[in-house]
Structures are given as C-alpha cells and as structure tokens.
TrEMBL record:
This is peptidylprolyl isomerase. The keyword Transport does not apply. It catalyses: [protein]-peptidylproline (omega=180) = [protein]-peptidylproline (omega=0). It comes from Salmo trutta. Keywords: Calcium, Endoplasmic reticulum, Glycoprotein, Isomerase, Metal-binding, Repeat, Rotamase, Signal. It comes from the Eukaryota. Its main location: endoplasmic reticulum. The keyword Signal applies.
Length: 557
C-alpha cells in the first residue's frame, strides 16, 4: 500500500510519469507505537538509498552508524523531512521521493544525477525531543509500601537496559548482582537519578530518558550510541539511608510480661531471616534449634544486639536492620549481598542472666507446716517440667509415682535442690531455674535444649528425716559397751562381712539404729565394713574396730 499527499497530476495510459510529493509504503509496523515522530523531534534511523532501478547510492549500514538528525528543520532533503513525520520506533518504510523534493536538477556530485527519483528503505530506531524529560511507567506496585526512595537513599536494584528499539545494552541480571548506589547525589546518570525517586521496594517500573539525561552526544562505548534514548526496566530490591537506625515492629506481645531483656542477658530465640524484598537467607527453624547468645555484648551484629533489648519471653517482633548495623558493604558471600537491609522475624523462647538465682513461688502451703525439708532428708515429690515457652519436658504424674531423692546428695540439678529446701509435706511450689543451676550449656539430648531456663511445678508428697551431716548410720539408744563381742557371732575374735551385715540390719529392724534414708542399705553397710577392715583382708579384728567417736575420717558406727 502506498501513501501520497497528492495524486499524480498527469495520468497517461502507462500510469504515473511524474509525481510532486513523496510516496511511501509501510513495510513493517510494530504492534505498539508509543510515540510517533513530529516536526522538531530528533531521530536516529538506518537507511538504504537506491535509484528506481535498484542501484544503491548510499547506506548508513555500510558506515555501521545511524543517521541522526532533527526532523523538519531543513537538515534533510525535503522529501525525507516529510517521510519521517508520523513514523514509530521500529517502523520500516519504503519511501519514493521526486527530484524536486530531493536534489533536483543539480543532483549531488557524482553520486546523484540531475532530476533523479530516490528510493529510501528507512528503519526508525529512536526519537526524542529536546523538551523531553524522564518518563516513568510503573507496571507492578507491591501491596505494602511503607517507604519510598528519597534523595540520598542507598538503593539496590536489578535492571535491563535497552535502547528505544529494544536492543539490550546491559543487564544486572546477567551479572547476577544488583546495582547498588546512592540516589540523587550524582552517582548515576541524571535520568536514573530522577527515575528511581518515589519507588517502593518490590516495585517494577520502566524509566525512559532522552540522551540529555543519559549519555548525551558521546554515548558510552560501543554499547550505547551517541544521542540515544535509554529505557531501563527496573525492580527495586532494597533501600535504606545511612542515617537509618534499627526499626522494630511488634507482632505479638504476651499479655503478661514480668521481665524484659537487658544488656548482659542470655537469650534463646527462633528467627526467620530475609532481605527487604522477601528473599529468604536463613532460619533457626530449619535447623530445629534456637539461636542462643548474650545480648548487648557484641556477640551478634549491632542491629540484632539492639533489637533484642526490651523483649518479653514469648514475644514476636520484626527487626529491620540497615546494612551499617548488619553485614555492611561486604555482606556474607552468597546468602547476604553487600549493603543489604536485613529483616528478622524473631520469637523469644527464653532468657536469663548469669546472676539469676532460682525463683521460688509458693502456690499452696498447708496450715500446719512445721517440719521443713533440709539437707540429708529423703523426700518424695511430684513435678511437671516445662520450658519457658510452655514446651513440655516431663511429668512424674505420667509414671504414676513420685520422684525420690536425698537432699544435698547431688541427685538432682542444683536449682531443684534449692527449690525443695524448707518445703513441708503438702506444699506446692513453682520454680524457675536458670540454666547454670539446671542442665547448663549442654542440656539433655532430645529433652532439654542447651542453656534452657526450666520451669517446675512441684508438690511435696512425703518426707523422711535424714541423719546428721556426715553420718550414714546412727544409734537410737546408747551403744553397747561390748559391741565387737555382740557382732562376733561365732566367737572367733573376728567379724566377717556377713556377721557385720546381719548385726547392723538387726539393729535397724529392732529400732535400735537407723541407716541414712534414700540410699541402698547394703551399699551403706558394705562401705561401713570396708572402712573398719583397715588391712582389707575381709575381716575386722578387735584392734581394727573403732566407733564414730574415735574416728575423724569415716562415716560408720
């Protein structure tokens, strides 16, 4: 299809002999034409110039350079000035120009003869106007946009850079690394400095700029021609300002918070770590283990040190950390890029301070509570054990029997020893035991995490008074003056282990003596016999035999 502004004035039987305006055919029309050439626009285009017989007289392709010129300002032959008006980028036209709109009777040196009709195969690559500014078109906006890019902010973004005809000249995606820079302070070409302002993290926009706001009349090497319009398809991944501090968003605060963390506390917490655009980089949940650390002592990055202060047990909060309080310009390698803002969603499991002692709360005390548990007493109690976050550990009720220990014999963790002291039968207590008085930094594999604070709800069920400190057996009445002879059942002037054991057990059964409660009676008696058997020959002679009153280093008789 050919277009003319005026039809041939002289029509003969063989068709048009002469024409006084251009004729052009649109050989390719792009699907979208965002902008058409107007008088006064600056264009870049390729062309092949031919005579009607197909003989080529000129070509921009041969020079490997587009023809760049203003339209409608008599910088071109009049026919080309007219032909370019209305063209779209990537449109292709076959233009026929009569001599009076080309080089006329004079021609052009030895290249174009007099009164020559010229044919041009034109491909438009670029169009802009000196009055153009930056054009921005957002094609994706995130649901939440709490902050927009401002002058002096530092941003991380990905981009594809193309010319107006779609030719790719650069891409951060191919380098698999964001472009990181300050905005509005001249670190970027002017058009990008303007185009990034007002963006949200996660936003995607097309930024189109004229060469005056790009690389101007010089271009940039072989990739960006001179006087080229630039198109950047940008997705913003991150932004912060050097003046930013840690941002805290409280997500869930327990109804009861008896204590908040302070510098020097040891905290156990779970976290999910991500970048500002939502990219996940780490999680304690995936390891099925809390992250345990001191706070306020530089054991963690500065932003986390700050964000963990003032939390309650059970609290959930989001901590947003700028890079200068995170991993800085270097990042951590593949997971956390340089200059990245970090987002931590944390859940506080427990915390304590190394100076903490056992916290004892009495929930119930009988009206008559006179006999109190002390060191050496044999006590029987029930307990429910859990962690600070309510996680169940163990319960004696599940086994249908009490837990039985001798106080002061190191049979339970120190915190439980402390919690049982001075209890009476029937009393119920709530114990909070810090890890250094519990299972310490190692915990109990599969049951109690390392450095965990323990919660015990205990009830004293039964108590048997122990023996005086240092004794494993005592007499309830005066000691026989002829004790050795009474033990020597066969009167052979020596006491065997069986004679010794039978005698002690008989005294206990008859109520004349007491063994320390809570221990294996036979082990106690065996130990007593061994202490009396000075030479270790398996029997006690009268010379070897001594009472407790005569001893300073043994705990028998």
């Amino acid at each position: 299809l050919f277009y003319t502004s005026r039809l041939c004035l002289l029509v003969l039987r063989w068709g048009c002999r002469l024409f006084d305006d251009i004729v052009f055919e649109k050989t390719f029309v792009p699907e979208q034409c965002v902008r058409a050439v107007k008088v006064g626009d600056y264009v870049r285009y390729h062309y092949n110039g031919m005579f009607p017989d197909g003989k080529k007289f000129d070509s921009s392709y041969d020079r490997s350079s587009t023809y760049n010129v203003y339209v409608g300002k008599k910088q071109l032959i009049e026919g080309m000035d007219r032909a370019l008006v209305g063209m779209c980028v990537n449109e292709r036209r076959l233009v026929k120009i009569p001599p009076q709109l080309a080089y006329g009777k004079e021609g052009y040196g030895d290249v174009i003869p007099s009164d020559a009709i010229l044919h041009f195969d034109v491909l438009l690559l670029d169009v802009w106007n000196p009055d153009d500014g930056v054009q921005m078109k957002t094609y994706y906006t995130p649901e939440n946009c709490s902050r927009k890019v401002e002058v002096s902010d530092y941003v991380r973004y990905h981009y594809n850079g193309t010319l107006l005809d779609g030719t790719l000249f650069d891409s951060s995606h191919t380098r698999m690394r964001t472009y990181d820079t300050y905005v509005g302070i001249g670190w970027l070409i002017a058009g990008m400095d303007q185009g990034l302002l007002g963006m949200c993290v996660g936003e995607k926009r097309i930024i189109t700029m004229p060469p005056s706001l790009g690389y101007g009349s010089n271009g940039d090497g072989s990739d960006i021609p001179q006087q080229a319009s630039l198109v950047f398809d940008v997705v913003l991944l991150d932004l912060h300002n050097p003046k930013d501090g840690v941002s805290i968003i409280n997500q869930d605060i327990p109804q009861h918070c008896h204590r908040k963390s302070v510098a020097g506390d040891f905290i156990r917490y779970h976290y999910n770590g991500s970048l500002l655009d939502g990219t996940f980089f780490d999680s304690s949940y995936s390891r099925n283990r809390t992250y345990d650390t001191y706070v306020g002592k530089g054991y963690v990055i500065g932003g986390m040190d700050e964000g963990l202060i003032g939390v309650c047990i059970g609290e959930k909060r989001r901590i947003i950390i700028p890079p200068h309080l995170g991993y800085g310009e270097e990042g951590t390698g593949t997971k956390i890029p340089g200059s990245a803002v970090l987002v931590f969603d944390i859940h506080i499991i427990d915390f304590h301070n190394p100076s903490d002692t056992v916290v004892i709360t009495t929930n119930y005390k009988p009206e008559v509570c006179e006999t109190l548990a002390k060191k050496g007493d044999f006590v029987k109690y029930h307990y429910n054990a859990s962690l600070m976050d309510g996680s169940f550990i163990d319960s004696t009720y599940n086994y249908g029997k009490t837990y039985n220990i001798v106080l002061g014999a190191n049979q339970v963790v120190p915190g439980m020893e402390e919690g049982l002291k001075e209890m009476c039968v029937g009393e119920r207590r709530h114990l909070v035991i810090p890890p250094h008085l519990g299972y310490g930094e190692r915990g109990v594999d599969g049951e109690v995490p390392a450095s965990a604070v323990l919660i015990f709800d205990i009830e004293m069920i039964e108590m048997e008074a122990g023996l005086p400190d240092g004794y494993m057996f005592i007499w309830n009445e005066d000691v026989s003056a002829d004790l050795f002879t009474e033990m020597d059942a066969d009167k052979d002037l020596q006491v065997l282990a069986s004679e010794f054991s039978d005698y002690i057990l008989r005294q206990v059964n008859e109520g004349k003596g007491r063994l320390a409660p809570g221990f294996d009676a036979y082990r106690i008696i065996e130990n007593m016999f061994s202490n009396q058997d000075r030479n270790g020959d398996g029997k006690i002679t009268e010379d070897e035999f001594k009472l407790k009153a005569d001893e300073t280093t043994h705990d028998e008789l």
